[in-house]
Design a protein that fits this description.
- The chain is α/β, with parallel strands linked by helices.
- It has one domain: Vaccinia Virus protein VP39 (Rossmann fold, 3-Layer(aba) Sandwich), CATH 3.40.50.150.
- The strands form two sheets. It has a seven-stranded mixed beta sheet.
- The N and C termini lie far apart (39 Å).
């Protein structure tokens, strides 16, 4: 099966200066817009963030393919469509303060940082947290704040949040995250319903009630607490 790199070589579009930019544009067109993601802020963020820098060494040529990829420590970087879909679901605005649970390589945080004011991200694996923090700083995402720790407890110091994005599958929604979500805010979280079946759950926090609904089937690493 041809890789993205070989396809661009065959098409004569692959040059040293714009190879990854072309890949990103095609990724957004074929994988994301084609599946219904239409928020222009999200689409522009997906075109801007250099995903090839967030994958493990040796996987760069697959960075813009329609798949999740390993990043070490039993963790993965999510498929581009899922990142875009989850980001669109929180209805991000430039004024937002967002909590992310599960920094991983930092890719989802970078996509959020292209749109919102502040991103607070927690990663359980200390080495991944340090690597992501270093890369995000190198790329001048100075509105992303990363810490190593247990995401189940959230990050109460900076609450409440306009939105919360969880990138690991939980058995249930952690109560501290609901508490830290602002009234009127949205949370997107993968939930393991039975066996290995997982669904994305969208939660909306109203003044006096919580509304939740399950969306598409997904596959994420487990939420470790």
């Amino acid at each position: 099966m041809a890789t993205w790199k070989s396809l661009f070589l065959l098409l004569g579009l692959f040059t040293s200066g714009d190879q990854y930019e072309l890949m990103r544009k095609l990724m957004v067109l074929q994988q994301i817009e084609a599946r219904g993601v239409s928020n222009q802020l999200v689409l522009e963020a997906m075109r801007n963030v250099p995903r090839h820098l967030f994958v493990a060494d040796g996987y760069e040529e697959y960075a813009y393919s329609d798949q999740a990829l390993p990043i070490g420590y039993g963790q993965t970087i999510s498929q581009p469509y899922i990142v875009a879909y989850m980001t669109e679901l929180i209805r991000p605005k430039p004024s937002f303060k967002v909590l992310e649970i599960g920094t991983g390589s930092g890719y989802q945080a970078a996509v959020l940082a292209e749109i919102v004011d502040q991103v607070y991200s927690i990663e359980l694996v200390d080495e991944l947290a340090r690597q992501a923090d270093s890369l995000l700083k190198k790329l001048d995402y100075d509105n992303v704040h990363v810490k190593s720790g247990d995401g189940y407890a959230g990050w109460a110091e900076h609450a409440p949040y306009d939105a919360i994005v969880v990138t690991a599958a939980a058995d249930s929604v952690p109560p501290p995250l609901l508490e830290q979500l602002k009234a009127g805010g949205r949370m997107i979280i993968p939930v393991a319903k039975w066996d290995d079946y997982q669904y994305l759950r969208l939660i909306e926090k109203k003044e006096n009630r919580i509304i939740s609904r399950d969306l598409i089937a997904v596959r994420f690493v487990p939420f470790v607490h």
